[in-house]
Amino acid sequence: MYLAVEHQIDDVFHTASALKVKMDESTDFSSSIANGVDGLLRQDQVEVCERVTYLEKKVRVQEDEIVCLKSAVADILRRLNQVEAEKAQNSILPTKPVFKSSTPHKTTPRTPRRTPLDNVYVTPPTRHSTPPSSAKSRTPIKKWGSMTNSTELNGSHNVRKMAQRKNKKYSKDPQWNSEEGNLRIYLRGRPVSLYAPSDLSDYSVDKEVTTPDQKLQLEYVFGYRGRDCRSNLYYLNGEVIYFCAGVVVLHNPEEQTQRHYLGHTDDVKCLAIHPDKVRVATGQVAGHDRKDSKPHVRIWHSTSLNTLHVIGIGDFDRSVCCLSFSKQDGGAKLCVVDESNEHELFVYDVEKGRKLANTKGSQDPVLAVEFHPSEPNSIIDVGKGHIQFWTLESGKLTKKSGVFDGGTPSSNTGPTKAAEGSYYMYTKVSNIASGSRAVLTTESASLTASSFCLSFQYHMKGLPGTLKVFAGDKTSSLTSIWEKSGVQPNPDQWKNVTIEIPQFNNPVISIEGTRGNSFRGDIAIDDLILKTPSRCCRKWYVIISTS
Questions:
Q1: Region 334-345 average pLDDT
Q2: How far apart are CA 373 and CA 389, in angstroms?
Q3: Which residue, 280, 404, 529, 536, could crosslink 453 as a Cys pair with Cβ 3.0–4.6 Å?
């Protein structure tokens, strides 16, 4: 019996050993499978990355092609609408007003146009010539004689004065001129002549009539606004876009036809084209109606002439002087500058119409504003005597002012040129509170424990504040060792100064300019040199130089 049990135990052990060997073989096989799968996945990952890179390049190329296709489709739709409008038109307006003739004739009534797109009117240009004016009626003048009674003269003079007063009182009422065939009315005190149709022989101003079924449609615009604005003319999809009064004109120079965007309520002042070459943004001035004619920006479709967005109602003051779409992000943002006293700069989200940031700009007129072509959050504006670089970060706009080679922007202050070379440093005090400081310091530089000699040239003209030089140890407060305040003798000339700086363990040198009480207080420095050793008459070793 014991032998049988031992044989059974041996069989069990042999069976377990066989299972272990099989399990080991299966484990090795599964690990080899896992390694193979990992290799295949890595190879697939490399292929996927290469495929994604190729597709990204292809998408960028196709984006450019899509923009070109949009422009082509917009031009095709415009031409189709023009053909449909010409088919619907049964008659063409005369090139000049036709006056009343002795023999009346009948004219066929004009049928109104029907176009598939709103606000699209395409007709050949018509020019109106001024009709000849009739001779003025002369009233006989009564001559004075020796037998004439003075009472009669006074009486006739009073009668003439009363008639003149009466005519002056009613001179602004509508007046019908049958000889010229026009009706004169007054709009805001200005006379406007309206010519009647050729088949109208007489017209009564006092007669009450019903409103006609037909409505006037804009045919052609003669004019262009360029006296007080810039960036006001663009070429888009075969049409020249510009504005005149409250109308944006899309003029086809080949066919001599026009389309008009009539969404604004007052004069248009600026214009910008979206990067997709389809959308257009236009800004208007403030109108007489405070509620409905506030300055704002309208974004509209150049093909259908439909308004897409209305931005900034209630944000701007006086008018919108310039605007621009962002370039890097496909026109997702719009920057706008108004004509308030501070020329505020606004940034909007185009699709949501939400204001992202705004800040005060410059008191001088701003002529243009543009987004940086490769940085979506960088904006540049230029104007009279200034150029400013803006950065949009976390809903705030920060500014850096550019410096021109020559005089400072403010009048009667600052130098007209640099003391040495082409550049200099100055404190611009316009739009800055009194007592504000500008500091140039060596705190970030590693100066050795030694005495120094500081020399520079300074310019203080107009009503400047104070220019000081401080020195001391980095671990303690600095001490003022030189100071100048107010206008200096011969203010148009640069002054040279040399200052000996005592020795400190961790030396720090600062030059500080403080604003005075006037905007004509620019303080400038140039040719700044820091030398060692302490005696300024010995051989110098130049450490810092701005020239």
A1: 90
A2: 13
A3: 536
